[in-house]
Specification:
This protein has 353 residues and is of the alpha/beta class. It folds into 2 domains: 10-227, Alpha-Beta Barrel (TIM Barrel); 244-352, Lyase, Ornithine Decarboxylase, Chain A, domain 1, CATH 2.40.37. It is 29% helix and 26% strand. It is built from 10 helices and 18 strands. Strands 1, 12, 13, 14, 15, 16, 17 and 18 form an 8-stranded mixed β-sheet that branches. An 8-stranded parallel β-sheet has the order 8-7-6-5-4-3-2-9. It is elongated and about 70 Å long.
Amino acid sequence: MPTPRIEIDLNKLAHNAREVMAACSPKGISVTAVTKGVCGSPIIAGALLKAGITSFGDSRIANIKKMREAGIDAQFYLIRTPMASEAEQVIKYVDISFNTEISVIRLLSAQALEYGKIHGVILMIDMGDLREGILPAHIKPMLAEIKGLAGVKLIGLGTNLACFAGVVPTEEKMREFSNFVEDLQQHHDEQFEIISGGNSANHQWISSAQDVGLVNHLRIGETILLGVDPLNREKIPGLYTDAFTLIAEVIELKAKPSVPQGKVGQNAFGNVPQFEDNGNVQRGILAVGKQDIDDTAITPRIKAQVLGASSDHLILDVSGLGLEAGSTVEMDVGYSALLRAMTSPYIEKVYLP
């Protein structure tokens, strides 16, 4: 089979999706599967659809378009604030978008009228993570204007935590969000259909909270794909962490010193690397690199140490493992490595039924 490749176990992904839905459903929370980590793969979306997922979220219009054109019959959310320049594409391919800018919502309104559609809008509220979102104190004027716009319908509020600043979605923080929503509904004659409380980082909260407040929706990507809690990258009991297997081929195997010889400056990526003197080691070079994966987010399934990577070479210490040129090495991937691998045209995608 071709290398490098990433093998994708669709049964394990379907299992993870069912388990996540089973954990959320008793608490009145629906799940939108986030596909940006797999470049909007229609094959993966199809497997999740069969498992019971009914909506997909992605940050890229191209991914949503790809899934729609492949016949994925589901509701689609654009989970990144739309660009003004893509307003027409949003209306053509997206059912609901997460928004923070009133100027963009005006454009969506105009395009929706041209296409004879009603587009769903969810306003994102910044609860402290300092990525996208409207500050709570600034929300009320937007509510009033959106009510007067034709072609768009305000259907909900959302928030996002633990992505940029790492703010944890604790029970206290989630209660603060629900209280904010409740106040808006009571004092401004609103009744929101969707209260989207976060992402895979909400796993600990959803597992332990007795009362989830008004939250009735989550956007789940990493937990379904990799079976881990993004707050600590620990395995979630009952989920598979090996649905994706990165396989790369050894193209050079030689014993070399562990410390470079000569004056060390910046490497190809502008870093000055540090080295530990371990004497001579058997260095295996694999035909994959930073252009394809994040070498800090891979774990070989053999007792090899990742020494680093350049754009198209991954270097491992494979001392004592008996590899040779042409051998292949299987590796687990973290989220950032998966994201690059699924985006890279140089890595073959092999789907296991």
